[in-house]
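Issue: ligand-bound run for L4RZE5RM - logging full I/O for the record.

Environment: standard queue, default settings, no custom constraints.

Inputs:
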Amino acid sequence: MPDIRAVLTDIEGTTSSIDFVKDVLFPFARQHLPAFVETHADDPEVQHWLHEAAKDAGLVEASRTEVIDLLIRWIDEDRKATPLKALQGMIWREGYESKAYVSHMYPEVAARLQAWHDQGLKLYVYSSGSVPAQKLMFGYSEHGDLTPLFSGYFDTQTGHKREVESYRRIAEAIGLAPAQVLFLSDIREELDAARAAGMHTTHLVRPPLPMADAGHPAVADFNAIQP
Ligand SMILES: CSCCC(=O)C(=O)COP(=O)(O)O
Ligand SMILES: [Mg+2]
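Outputs:
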């Protein structure tokens, strides 16, 4: 029997629906990004991420309008670029705080996270969304504030989700051997990378997607997982 001490979970397609991200969060960020950048132009953190976005795109001395256009294009392309994710998180905060939306969680997720927490497992998140965006997602969920259940959060500042080294870094950061961690995701390449690092893996195939064999144990929901 594997000695699992921690569950590391993806968000989009795993705890929460892709539709919520694509139909609610992304359009909100797209709509509010131009005004957000203009009104926060003096904020050093915003300036830093605008600069990083321009640098990633190879834009030299780009105007603010050019960087805004770039970021909107990245939203439309669902680019997992760290500067975009950081800025999206700041914009989404305004949506959560103004009650424009609450985050979607699949119906069994909150109860299973609570049960795993209560049985002594440590819970962690690893998402392409920024750590502040992850905390908002679990803090303003349909099932209330789930952040007390989590021991830590990781985003692309730790490394990209399809890279083996990212999972080694996460195991080291949480002080466990990779074999003591169960990683949950809907994306095969992420599961492959986690397994190559030595983690256990479970593939979430949320209905109505047909159950597919991606080479990892596959389940339709968290009720079928027994860490
Ligand atoms: C918590 S942020 C909202 C989702 C998001 O921006 C994203 O890129 C989700 O990526 P994931 O790695 O959770 O599939
Ligand atoms: Mg996902």
